[in-house]
Amino acid sequence: MTDQDLARGTGTALWRQIAERLERDIVSGNRQPGERLPTEMQMAEEFGVNRHTLRRAVAALAEQGLVRIEQGRGTFVQESVIDYRVKKRTRFSENMLGHRREPSGRILAIREEPAEDAVAKALEIRKGTMVIVVERIGEVDGRPLSVASHYYPKARFPTLPEVMRDTGSITQTMERLGVGDYTRKVTKVTARTARAADARLLQQSPNKPILMTEGINIDATGRPVEYSVARWASDRVQMVFEPGA
């Protein structure tokens, strides 16, 4: 598209015309979900407008949820929201594979610390009892979707750090540690303001909210084996609860 394609002097603002052209490209599939748009300077030159006009058009698309603007990375066509199914057996990889998406993840840190009130209550241990904390990021198609803190009672799983580093998988780690199956006892969901570190890891604007989930997993005897606090990119996922599933 060139500047000659814009109808100048017709009463319709140039930024609105640009937004409508880009919207048609996105809706028609000419620009694919996750595709990075040309730079602000490139698009301004393409449309024959100044960068302020172009910026206003892109901001309008962002407000509609058609694109996302990532500081320092550029502007991308927004992907569809993923339905994250919360059921009796909730597994990140299975959830993503069910959507024909490619799941992956990586460990950010593993440490030990005394259990604070919320952690102790969830794991049914005394406050101050040592727990193992695994900080992990969950990715879909190579893009971060969640950042989570997983808490485990150290007395029950003293070798968990070594096993977790070896497998890189929570499910496989639990299997190696003798917990062949675990189920979700409770999940709580709230909306929160993103901390700067979480926004950076999730590659989202710091002024966007996140979804925060708190979950407790139990073994076959009903004993808690894990307490997790996960922060999710709220514009990329929605929680779908399936009672009894």
In short:
The protein has 245 residues and is α+β, with helices and mostly antiparallel strands.
Question: How would you sum up this structure, described in words?
Answer:
This protein is 29% helix and 34% strand. With 245 residues, it is an alpha+beta fold. It has two domains: 3-77, Arc Repressor Mutant, subunit A, CATH 1.10.10; 82-241, 3-Layer(aba) Sandwich (Chorismate lyase). The chain has a six-stranded antiparallel β-sheet, sandwiched between helices. A two-stranded antiparallel ribbon has the order 1-2. A two-stranded parallel ribbon has the order 3-10. The mean pLDDT is 91.
Q: How is this fold's topology laid out?
A:
Layout: H1 14-28, H2 40-47, H3 51-63, E1 67-70, E2 74-77, E3 82-86, H4 92-98, E4 103-114, H5 117-123, E5 130-140, E6 143-153, H6 160-167, H7 170-176, E7 183-193, H8 196-202, E8 209-218, E9 224-233, E10 237-241
Parallel strand pairs: 3-10
Antiparallel strand pairs: 1-2, 4-5, 5-6, 6-9, 7-8, 8-9
Helix pairs in contact: 1-3, 2-3, 6-7
- The count of DSSP E runs of length 2 or more, i.e. the number of strands, is 10
- Count of helices? 8
CATH architecture of the largest domain: 3-Layer(aba) Sandwich
Low-confidence stretches: none
The H-and-E topology, N to C, reads as HHHEEEHEHEEHHEHEEE
Ends: how far apart? 50 Å
Structural class: alpha+beta
Share of residues in helices: 25-40%
Q: What is the fourth-level CATH superfamily of the largest domain?
A: Chorismate lyase-like
